[in-house]
Design a protein that fits this description.
The chain is of the alpha/beta class. It is built from 18 helices and 18 strands. Helix content is 48%, strand content 16%. The chain has a 6-stranded parallel beta sheet with strand order 3-2-1-14-15-9, with helices on both faces. The radius of gyration is 26 Å and the shape is elongated. It catalyses: tRNA(Met) + L-methionine + ATP = L-methionyl-tRNA(Met) + AMP + diphosphate. Its main location: cytoplasm.
């Protein structure tokens, strides 16, 4: 297993029954920011994402569209889900599909191992099933329907009626792992985060676990149960295995040993699958449990969870076509406390773009570069005498670097950005108070002017390094304008204030151009 120097992080694999919305992109960006940060801190970071393509919901969607399930999945993956990664600038290391042979074959190996070890038995089950969740529901998971579904019980998440199913299936003896799971949560408080999610999971397990139905015989779109091809593997049992099949389980022991265990970033609505079922499966197989399961909140539009069925789904391109991928990434990581629900509004996005990105960071960069060009012919000064004000900026660079890194270690992306933004604000205040444009008018102040401009350039370079995982396009342009040495992504982010560069700056275009058009 991993010696700790690797950082393997995953998103959920997303269901291909429809096209992605900004809720999916939010998860992708969060995982990508964390992967980029750890990669730039010198760790062996590896980001996995992908698609979940089996199950009854996919089968029904494909039939409704007059194609086979595989044709439907292929179409959605190529036209919607892979393009999403480009839209919001995701730098993933792998993309797994549950229809990949590497997944299907090795998922069967895992299942056979559990069967041979006596963790699986035959039984019958009757219960209310939500096709939207691909999950049997307890009475407490149901609510009274409204509108066209008035008078019937509906899923609390999807607001659609549940179906009463009675099947003879194979069952995983999950109930036998309740005590081990509770011990896991007790011994490793960081295993499930944030704290509210951990408390929810503990409460759920303490109520008692039932054994899990892990096969279906009423339809055939899925991975065949290896010892009984009249059954297919339950879609969630199948899907969870992607995290290890992509990492080498069953076919690349060296890779699996290097990468596993992983940090899982998931939406809170699928927390129980990842924090209860998944570790129980791994305990049964004798495989180390994940390093951490982090359940982030929902994106809310008009007070409701992002949903295609409720017409609250917003395509990421609706934002990026106007504001760009950097603004998308910054806004959702900055405006929402990672781990809590957050409301999206076009007005807030537009306001933050203008005040924080365009005026705060972008204008700072443009002003400093322009002044070095104007007052020093583009040559970065090399002063030897600094004032207390200069030293304070240098101290803030170090403090912001350390604070941001500590926040990232807790997956508190919003806190990391807030720490970095202290340097943005202090640099803006520093430029205002030092008035380099006034210093430039008197040759007697030349030494002071050069110290101010040098300090500002140093601060900008530190910002370029620290913000690289969050706004990679803008920081890449800034890095070039500053004459930074080597590739920006190769500069150690945990030593951001120690960056090195050349002797000259070059003109810089606006990093975040003014947007006049009305959006929303």
């Amino acid at each position: 297993m991993s010696d700790g120097s690797s950082f393997y992080i995953t998103t959920p694999i997303f269901y291909v029954n429809d096209v992605p919305h900004i809720g999916h992109a939010y998860t992708e960006v969060a995982a990508d920011v964390l992967a980029r940060w750890h990669r730039q801190a010198g760790e062996d970071a590896w980001l996995l994402t992908g698609t979940d393509e089996h199950g009854q919901k996919i089968l029904r969607t494909a039939i409704a569209n007059g194609v086979t399930p595989k044709e439907w999945a292929d179409r959605l993956v190529e036209t919607a889900w892979k393009p999403l990664l480009q839209t919001v600038d995701i730098k993933n290391d792998d993309f797994i599909r549950t229809t990949d042979e590497r997944h299907e074959v090795n998922a069967q190996k895992f299942l056979q191992h559990l069967y041979d070890a006596g963790h699986i038995y035959t039984g019958e089950y009757e219960g209310f099933y939500c096709v939207g969740c691909e999950e049997y529901k307890q009475p407490s998971d149901l609510i009274d329907g409204t509108g066209e579904f008035a008078g019937v019980q509906v899923c609390a998440i999807h607001s659609i009626p549940v179906e009463l199913l009675h099947e003879k299936n194979y069952f995983f003896r999950m109930s036998t792992f309740a005590d081990q799971l509770l011990a896991l949560y007790e011994d490793n408080p960081d295993f499930v985060q944030p704290a509210a999610a951990r408390n929810e999971v503990i409460s759920f397990v303490k109520q008692g676990l039932s054994d899990l139905s892990i096969s279906r015989s009423s339809f055939d779109w899925g991975i065949k149960v290896p010892w009984d091809d009249t059954h297919v593997v339950y879609v969630w049992f199948d899907a969870l295995l992607n995290y290890i099949t992509a990492a080498g389980y069953g076919h690349d022991d060296e890779k699996f040993s290097r990468l596993w265990p992983a940090t899982h970033i998931v939406g809170k609505d699928i927390l129980r699958f990842h924090a209860v079922i998944w570790p129980a499966m791994l305990l049964a197989a004798g495989i180390e449990v994940p390093r951490r399961v982090f359940g982030h909140g929902w994106l809310l539009v008009g007070g409701e969870k992002m949903s295609k069925s409720k017409l609250t789904g917003i395509a990421p391109s609706q934002i990026t076509d106007t504001f760009g991928s950097d603004a998308f990434r910054y806004y959702f990581m900055r405006a929402i406390s990672f781990g809590q629900d957050g409301s999206f509004s076009w007005e807030d996005l537009s306001a933050r773009y203008q005040s924080e990105l365009a005026n705060g960071f972008g204008n700072l960069a443009s002003r400093v570069i322009a002044m070095v060009v104007r007052y020093c012919d583009g040559e970065i000064p090399t002063p030897t005498v600094f004032s207390e004000d200069d030293d304070l900026i240098r101290a803030t660079e170090k403090r912001a670097t350390d604070a941001a890194g500590e926040a990232i270690s807790r997956l508190a992306i919003h806190e990391a950005i807030a720490a970095i933004w202290e340097l943005v604000d202090e640099l803006n205040g520093y430029i205002t108070s030092q008035e380099p444009w006034a210093l430039a008018k008197d040759p007697a102040n030349r030494a002071r002017l050069e110290a101010v401009l040098f300090t500002a350039v140093r601060g900008l370079g530190t910002l370029a390094v620290l913000l690289s995982p969050i706004v990679p396009q803008a920081t890449g342009k800034l890095w070039q304008a500053l004459g930074g040495s080597g590739e920006l992504t190769d500069v150690r982010i945990d030593q951001a204030w120690q960056w090195t560069g050349g002797t000259h700056v070059s003109p810089l275009e606006a990093l975040f151009p003014r947007i006049e058009a009305t959006v929303g």
